[in-house]
Amino acid sequence: MPCVHFLKIFTLSILCSLLVSAITFAQNNEKHYLIKAGQMYDSEKNVFLKNKQILVKGNTILKVGDKLDVPPGTTVLDHGNATVTPGLIDAHTHILFRQGVTEKIAFDGIMNSAETRVLRAVGYAKSYLKAGFTAIRDLGNSEQYLDVEVRNAIDRGDFPGPRMVVSGPIISAMDGQLDGVPVKQFDHYSRKEYSMVSGEEEAKKAVKEHIVRGVDVIKITAIGGRLTMTPEEMKAVVDAAHRERIQVTAHCDRDWAVHAAIAAGVDGLEHGYGFKPTTLDTMAKKKIYLVPTDGSADLSMIFLRSQNLPVDEQAIRKNFQPLYNRIMAAHKAGVMIVAGSDAYVGFDMPRGEQATHTVAGYLDAGLSPADVLKTATFNGSVALGMQGQIGVLKENAMADIVVFNGDMQKDFKKSLFNVKMVMKNGVVEYEK
Ligand SMILES: [Zn+2]
Asked: Second label for 263, Cα 20 to 30 Å away, from 27, 56, 332, 369?
């Protein structure tokens, strides 16, 4: 009978897949690597250490030390002339979104299908791994939960990519953030990209819906294109999210709009342009981190050259100075700086490499090589809610490890752009 026949095949296929999973699990579980590091960055102590060894078993770091005993069959990876760091973390990105150089911000959502955006994200995810990023936090502009789908596909092993912590649609006031939407279709397209709320009840409901759909973090716009969320709406979001142990971070680029977000109890602030010194002091006191998403002067020049536009290096570096000053002011005030690229402008460069430029830009701002690495490792793990699991090289942490050619302490930028090996979850994902 067809039904019985089908049942037999079905049962057999389940048994086969269980067997394959068990064998794969056993293999992964037993695989040992010993990584010998000429130099290793310790993100907790924020120092570079010479001649360290890292023993990996399966997807976990078993031990870190000077000279380790290893079981037979261990694969030794000798990286004497290199710097070994935890996998990098980009805490603010949008891999489902691309704004062409001459396009309005709404163009992607209006003209490109969900399929186009997801397939494009597959390439962006791979480029992140290749650049040494083993984790990213994706903060919206992903239609309705495409980021959740992409994260799940990477977790299933459908294609390679970094770990993803995702926000789902950004919760905003009734304006979203899009410009370039035809007036009559404003509501349609803005609702496609955002969760626009009015009032505390809608704000709470949006958070619950996000959590049920599987997001890891909530992002709000303290101020969007024009409207601010009310203090009551922001507080409703934060309370509903914190009740479920989910962090909230707020897009905010004006000092006058940030105070309600801080009072509401957000965990982090994105961008942070024009914040006053007193605001930075309050952030430090309340342990609210800042994600400065500036790119870099170098990236701006590459961009201009790609467009065959004139490049005045001195003027560009001068324009960046106020941005750099704000990063250093926040750092000196004791605010935790978290690396975030906000890479969404599309030009001829892999996304991962674009994100690397933002990290390099923090060095131009005046942070030391160790402090820069901290923003993209330890501090990133805090923003992703994965402290102790990623962004550190220590016993029981996940085996997310990057090897950079050269000496990062002495020649930071050259080394940062010269990735030698990337391991994510105990698997070597890239090797040069
Ligand atoms: Zn952004």
From this structure: 332
97, 107 in Cβ contact below 8 A? Answer: no
Same fold, 31-86+395-431 and 88-383: no
Sketch the domain layout of the chain as residue ranges: 31-86+395-431, 88-383
Closest CA to 382 of 247, 243, 202, 237: 247
User: What are the φ/ψ torsions at residue 209 (nearest 5 degrees)?
Assistant: -60, -45
| Per-residue model confidence as pLDDT tens digits over 352-390 | 999 999 999 999 999 999 999 999 999 999 999 999 999
> How many angstroms separate the alpha carbon of residue 429 from the centre of ligand 1?
27
219 versus 348: the higher-pLDDT residue is 219
Using the mean position of ligand 1's atoms as its centre, give its distance from the Cα of residue 191 in Å.
17
Question: Can you give the pLDDT at residue 347?
Answer: 80
Q: What's the CATH number for 31-86+395-431?
A: 2.30.40.10
Ligand 1 centroid distance, CA of 184 (Å): 26
The C-alpha angle with vertex 352 and arms to 31 and 124, in degrees rounded to 5, equals 85
- Give the global pTM: 0.93
Q: Does domain 88-383 have CATH number 3.20.20.140?
A: yes
CB 401 within 8 A of CB 393: yes
- Cα 93 to ligand 1 centroid, rounded to whole Å: 6
92 alpha carbon to ligand 1 midpoint, in Å?
6
Residue-wise pLDDT tens digits, 58-113: 999 999 999 999 999 999 999 999 999 999 999 999 999 999 988 888 899 999 99
3-class state of residue 431 by DSSP: strand
User: What does the alpha-carbon distance between residue 254 and residue 361 come to, in Å, rounded to a whole number?
Assistant: 22
Cα–Cα distance for residue pair 402/83, rounded to 1 Å: 8
